[in-house]
């Protein structure tokens, strides 16, 4: 019996990770769906097990001790290994997790999901959206879609479609048949830097950006909705506006699409390989990419 080695509680290790990440017992308790006193007890149990304090507490701060840092590193490693093991042994219990910009999800992926589930009813996709300009991969995602200024040769990335900028507006917003007539309307922007309109105007020999009236947004989705409501002319990617154009909600008043060289690409995380539906999912996305190349 003396050779039996007691190990720290997994719940205690989870509590340590959350308290460290949140720098707050209160917030960690909310995330763990526990009371603050319950989280404190779990940390105290860890401290009793290892015989050292995990945190240095003051009235204004909460910091890990040197020993707490070591336990935290091991806790993260243990929990990550258990997650990988769970996914490997019971992969059908979880969906394939994809992270992408909210406008891309609404304008490009969502209209295609009925086709995906019609062909793959046994595979579930979990869609996580972000509103930031750059889509950062998350540790719990299997794949993410991001914008690249130019294609690369990374084998873990699948180019979905190339960026082609076009002006779009509500049908009947006019007269609007040439670049010169843009001066009579507000330019709607999908990002604060106004880079899309700047690029398109320069390529089409138009006036300086300062000569126009502007209404900025932080999402393509908002800019396109504003355009459909007649607030002005939005600059967007042709692929993202395609469904609205097909439904007659938006029109391209004039000009040819401007190919910028940028691409939207699906990137796989290392965890994707353990999901049994990964190959079929990539095959489906590959079909969408080939369709985009044919229609562009």
Helix count? Answer: 10
The strand order across the widest sheet is 4-3-5-10-6-9-7-8
For the largest beta-sheet, the strand count, sense and barrel status come to: 8 strands, mixed
- N-to-C order of helices and strands: HHHEEHEHHEEEEHEHEHEH
Percent helix: 40-55%
- What quaternary form is this? single chain
Structural class of the secondary structure composition?
Answer: alpha/beta
Tell how many strands the DSSP assignment holds.
10
Query: What does the average pLDDT come to?
Result: 90
Q: Specify the overall morphology.
A: elongated
Alpha carbon gyration radius: 25 Å
Plain-language structure description:
The structure is a single chain. The chain is an alpha/beta fold. It contains ten helices and ten strands. The chain has helices at 10-22, 25-32, 36-50, 66-89, 102-109, 113-119, 195-203, 220-228, 238-246, 278-295, and strands at 55-57, 62-64, 96-101, 125-130, 143-148, 157-168, 186-189, 213-216, 233-237, 258-268. The chain has an eight-stranded mixed β-sheet with strand order 4-3-5-10-6-9-7-8, sandwiched between helices. It has a two-stranded antiparallel sheet with strand order 1-2. Strand 7, helix 7 and strand 8 form a beta-alpha-beta unit.
Short description:
This protein has 296 residues and is α/β, with parallel strands linked by helices. Helices cover 41% and strands 20% of the residues.
Features:
296 residues, alpha/beta, 8-stranded mixed beta sheet, two-stranded antiparallel ribbon, 10 helices, 10 strands, elongated, LysR substrate-binding domain-containing protein, transcription, DNA-binding, transcription regulation
């Amino acid at each position: 019996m003396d050779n039996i080695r007691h190990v720290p509680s997994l719940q205690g290790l989870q509590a340590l990770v959350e308290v460290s990440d949140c720098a707050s017992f209160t917030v960690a308790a909310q995330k763990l769906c526990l009371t603050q006193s319950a989280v404190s007890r779990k940390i105290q149990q860890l401290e009793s097990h290892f015989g050292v304090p995990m945190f240095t507490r003051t009235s204004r701060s909460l910091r890990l001790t040197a020993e707490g840092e070591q336990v935290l590193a091991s806790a993260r490693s243990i929990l990550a290994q258990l997650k990988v093991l769970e996914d490997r042994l019971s992969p059908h219990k979880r969906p394939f997790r994809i992270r992408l910009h909210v406008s891309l999800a609404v304008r490009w992926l969502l209209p295609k999901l009925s086709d995906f589930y019609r062909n793959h009813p046994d595979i579930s996709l979990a869609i996580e959206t972000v509103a930031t300009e750059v889509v950062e991969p998350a540790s719990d995602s299997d794949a993410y879609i991001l914008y690249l200024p130019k294609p690369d040769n990374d084998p873990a990335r699948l180019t979905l479609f190339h960026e082609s900028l076009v002006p779009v507006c509500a049908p009947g917003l006019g007269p609007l048949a040439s670049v010169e007539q843009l001066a009579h309307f507000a330019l709607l922007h999908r990002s604060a830097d106004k880079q899309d309109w700047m690029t398109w105007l320069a390529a089409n020999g138009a006036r300086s950006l300062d000569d126009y009236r502007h209404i900025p947004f932080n999402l393509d989705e908002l800019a396109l909705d504003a355009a459909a409501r007649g607030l002005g002319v939005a600059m967007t990617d042709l692929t993202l506006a395609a469904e609205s154009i097909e439904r007659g909600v938006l029109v391209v008043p004039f000009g040819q699409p401007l190919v910028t060289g940028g691409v939207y690409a699906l990137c796989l995380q290392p965890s994707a390989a353990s999901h049994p539906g990964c190959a079929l999912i990539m095959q489906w996305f590959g079909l969408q990419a080939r369709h985009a190349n044919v229609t562009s």
